[in-house]
Amino acid sequence: MTLQTPSPIVQVLPETAPFSEEQRSWLNGFFAGLLALDNAGLTALSPAENAAVMAQAEDGAPWHDPSLALPERMQLAEGKPLPRRLFAAMAQQDCGQCGYVCESYSAAIAEGTETRLNLCAPGGKETLRMLRTLVEETGAAPATVSAQPSPPPAAGAPGRCREQPVPARFLSRRRLNGEGSQKETWHVEFDLSRSGLDYVVGDAFGILPQNDPRLVDAVIALLGARPDAEIGGGTLRQALLADRALGPAPDALFQLISYVTGGALREKARRLAAGEDPDGDLDRLDVLGALHKFGLARLSPEAFVEALDPLQPRLYSISSSHIATPGRVSLTVDAVRYQIGTRPRWGVASTYLAARVAPGDAVPVYVQRAHGFGLPADPATPIIMCGPGTGIAPFRAFLHDRRATGAPGRNWLFFGHQRRSSDFFYEDELTAMKEEGLLTNLTLAWSRDGDEKIYVQDRMRERGAELFAWLEQGAHFYVCGDARRMAKDVELALVDVVAAHGGRTADAAQAYLAQLKKSGRYQADVY
């Protein structure tokens, strides 16, 4: 690979920004480097070279496991070609939020057809830092730098990709939890009749949310700026509401702070920008927290906004069937609310859907086609679905779809949560489906209803003989939920079932599971 010649530094900051010439020069250079994340920045393999690398990498991608920590994944990929190491740096969830799956996002970066390194939302700063390190190791340099991020190389049709959302009308929300629940879960519906969108079960629904206005106003107040300060054709408040992320403070913000402060504060900001944690609070510092921590830093609104990450769309598993309810889509959403110290924190999209968007409001949305997650082609194929909590979403969609199409295949649902009295989502629907025979088996697990915590994986082991018989009869197995814990526990339980009831050794049971995955009979929708 050869080095590319860096382009001259462009003038990013406006002439009216309150900086000296020396500061302006440094900041222009800094933001040129920052903006290179969204522009061409790789000495790329050609498509043919990358295809050859991928074809030669008969490694089985052992790091492709969302339960593995990044250092472990990188160790497994050590010595591999660049595309494979880029692959290992991804979050391994194949969530589609970046517009790819992990492997194809890696390949696109290696080929140079995708120039943005900051799209892996589940991986966050950890993945971004590793991707930047891998790119820098190749000797790559920015080919072009501009003050505005370039569009992706090939945007999809309107409403079919994150780059081209379309408006959909928010219809309603209803609380799914009963009295006494420790959770806040909502059934949310949108009207798609004017959006031109359709979907199939297994697809995900992308939402472009807005930040909480209370948080935006608090950030502006700490910044010491005017809400109507002009930023890129709009106002500061508009940019912070809809365009910029206010979650974990990005490295670029700490780098900016390190330049406009001095002494111990400058050194502390530099260490935070490098991923170090001098005060033990890095994992708790969101943008507001960073401004509070460095209250003496005086940042211009323009520089501040440029240092923030873009506000990413959020993807939710669709919990309805377009065949059963044409023109509508529903989601099953946990509202994320928690507290760090004395400060409340809110999930951006989940609380937007749970509280801030009003019926009749137009919301930018798109449909993300599923990557290997959907009903079997043969409607007679039996299916086993394991989805505790909001993991029930795609399986509610599967069941409504199979009912609407008259699919003859048997259906088995494992569902669990904390308490039956308050957390049995869609109880009336599921009970009716069981009574009418659509649900052959409905197996429930409640972790807070007794002295012993019972989870779906425990129920799988209890019903192991029947579960294995279904697999031997060609059933497809599905799991939806938390990637790091629940989904991994379900996978281990399935291996135990195969070993115990299939008369196999542990290694042979692992091979059985691997064959299910290879044939598309084991599918996961994890987050």
Attribute tags:
single chain, 527 residues, alpha/beta, Elongation Factor Tu (Ef-tu), domain 3, NADPH-cytochrome p450 Reductase, Chain A, domain 3, 4 domains, six-stranded antiparallel β-sheet, five-stranded parallel β-sheet, 15 strands, disordered N terminus
Q: How would you describe this structure to a colleague?
A:
The protein is α/β, with parallel strands linked by helices and 527 residues long. It has four domains: 44-137, no CATH class; 166-209 and 313-368, Elongation Factor Tu (Ef-tu), domain 3, CATH 2.40.30.10; 213-307, NADPH-cytochrome p450 Reductase, Chain A, domain 3, CATH 1.20.990.10; 383-526, Nucleotide-binding domain of ferredoxin-NADP reductase (FNR) module (Rossmann fold), CATH 3.40.50. 38% of the residues lie in helices and 15% in strands. The chain contains 20 helices and 15 strands. It has helices at residues 21-35, 47-56, 70-76, 82-89, 102-111, 124-137, 213-223, 236-242, 251-260, 263-273, 287-293, 301-307, 348-356, 393-405, 420-423, 427-436, 456-462, 464-472, 486-502, 506-518, and strands at 166-175, 185-191, 204-207, 230-231, 234-235, 314-317, 328-334, 337-340, 343-346, 362-368, 383-386, 411-417, 441-446, 476-481, 522-526. The strands form four sheets. Strands 6-3-10-1-2-7 form a six-stranded antiparallel sheet, with helices on one face. A five-stranded parallel sheet has the order 13-12-11-14-15, with helices on both faces. A two-stranded antiparallel ribbon has the order 4-5. Helix 7 (213-223) packs parallel to helix 11 (287-293). The two termini are 36 Å apart. The model is unreliable at 1-14, 29-56 and 140-154 (pLDDT under 50).
